């Protein structure tokens, strides 16, 4: 059995261990990042919806940074949104502040009914710089 090459962001390893999953795994030149939500350090949801999206991106960026990546290395994005008909435009507006310049990664938005008290979750796959040819 191959041992997973797990990446933990600084200061949050206990939270991931408590919940029994890895924040990200390196494999084949790519970084597969688990869904990131707008959780505070203790795991509780950020109450303000816009701040929750910002915190989700901050949590995502912490995982990417721990692996030597940045959002510019992201090639695939999946967004999970509770009640997207109501929240999509606002979430998309905040997300664009983190998105960066073109060319953009491909993206899929999925409407869901429940995210454990959160309104937004982002899951990505990133190319690890220097590990794979362009």
From TrEMBL:
InterPro entries with a match to the protein in the record: RutC-like_sf (IPR035959), YjgF/YER057c/UK114 (IPR006175), YjgH-like (IPR038743)
Gene Ontology molecular function: any one: deaminase activity
Pfam family, one: Ribonuc_L-PSP
GO (cellular component) term, any one: cytosol
Protein name: RidA family protein
Lineage: Bacteria, Pseudomonadati, Pseudomonadota, Betaproteobacteria, Burkholderiales
């Amino acid at each position: 059995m191959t041992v997973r090459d797990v990446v933990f962001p600084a200061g949050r390893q206990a939270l991931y261990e408590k919940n029994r999953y890895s924040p990200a795994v390196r494999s084949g030149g790519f970084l597969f990042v688990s869904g990131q939500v707008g959780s505070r350090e203790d795991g509780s949801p950020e109450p303000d919806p816009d701040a929750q999206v910002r915190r989700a991106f901050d949590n995502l960026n912490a995982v990417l940074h721990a692996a030597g990546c940045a959002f510019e290395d992201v090639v695939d994005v999946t967004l999970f949104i509770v009640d997207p008909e109501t929240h999509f435009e606002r979430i998309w507006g905040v997300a664009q502040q983190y998105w960066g310049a073109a060319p953009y990664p491909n993206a899929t938005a999925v409407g869901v009914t429940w995210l454990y008290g959160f309104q937004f979750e982002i899951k990505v796959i990133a190319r690890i710089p220097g590990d794979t040819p362009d």
